[in-house]
Amino acid sequence: MSANIKIIYGVSGEGSGHAIRSREVIRYLINEGHEVQVVTYDRGKDLLGEEFSVTEVFGLHFDYQHNAIRYLSTIWRNLIRAPEAVKSLELAANLFQTTRPDVVCTDFEPVTALTALRFGVPIISIGNIHHVLFRGSRVPWRYRHDWLVSKAVVRLIVPRADHYVVTTLASEPVKKSHVHIVPPIIRPSILGARPHRGEHILVYDSFKNERLPVILQKTNQLYRIYGHGAIGRQGNLDFRAFSEQGFLDDLLGCRAIIGTGGFTLISESLVLKKPYLAIPIAGQFEQIDNALELERLGYGKMLRVAEIDGIAEFLRNLDVFEERLEAYHHPGNDSAMALIESLVDELAGVKVIH
């Protein structure tokens, strides 16, 4: 181990998954004796700011409507904030010149990635998003346009990295020496948890799919719903305000989960052996990719849109999914952390700060 390596760690603040994963990696790197400066925004700042030194920057935001991504409005929404982006790039340049980092790690955060390229600092990309670029299986024709758009967006946000540590739901071969496939990085509260089988279905609906509650009311099942905005009981729907502990308790005690195609919650559902119904954001191939893999593995089901027949089929097959999940084994985070540490050591001697 090379002690006291200086690392700038960029974390996307769009949603919580990037920050939840990065928190575990940052803790590990600090415990290994390295200096880590976090660069993030929005949810990343909320989740990481109390524990780590954080520099807040401009963050890219995607625009969603009716459970679908809107690329034109996303582009416009970020273009009108261009002056903020320029200031953040200047702030990052000053941070690099002051800190003189040996390595940059990025979990889909563009300001640190672009500044690292400018100053010649080696980059390690960590996260599931680059599975879009390096996936081994063929993309179904139905999703090929979404895949091509997603590849372009991913390359725009992180144009290049020296190494890619790609978290995936299942191991798969890769032919590129700088691409490393690792299991999902899971928070200790999940790895060490003792789940039990309750009667409620946990629903995480942070994108407020308007169709979903209407459909769920038609089924004979109790749902505990987070992220939809409402609070209170409406028949078989129990809308709950978000709290980390409350959500964790309902996650550990649910019978199954309904959510988007977000990687973090799907990964945690596998560790806890909870069947998962994924309704990915339309047009967002990263989520579609996760949902396709979930269904291929047999641990849950994917729906393109929320509809009663698909939800009813998922509920009828919970016993089947639970039986398949018994075979799932997560090896822990040690191998992924050791790989990241070895890559940090390898790259720490090649920086070129101008």
Give an overview in words.
There is one protein chain. By secondary structure, the chain is of the alpha/beta class. It has two domains: 6-185 and 333-347, Glycogen Phosphorylase B (Rossmann fold), CATH 3.40.50.2000; 189-325, Rossmann fold (3-Layer(aba) Sandwich), CATH 3.40.50.2000. The chain is 42% helix and 18% strand. It has 15 helices and 16 strands. It has helices spanning 17-31, 42-48, 71-79, 82-99, 110-119, 131-134, 144-157, 188-191, 211-216, 244-252, 263-271, 285-297, 308-316, 318-325, 334-347, and strands spanning 6-11, 35-40, 54-56, 64-65, 68-69, 103-107, 123-127, 163-167, 179-182, 201-204, 223-226, 232-234, 237-240, 256-259, 276-278, 300-302. Strand 14, helix 11 (263-271) and strand 15 (276-278) form a beta-alpha-beta unit. Helix 1 (17-31) crosses helix 2 and helix 4 (82-99) crosses helix 5. The radius of gyration is 20 Å and the shape is globular. The relative contact order is 0.14. Pfam families: Glyco_trans_1_3.
In total, how many domains does the architecture comprise? Answer: 2
Can you count the helices? 15
Sheet with the most strands? 7 strands, parallel
Proportion in helices: 40-55%
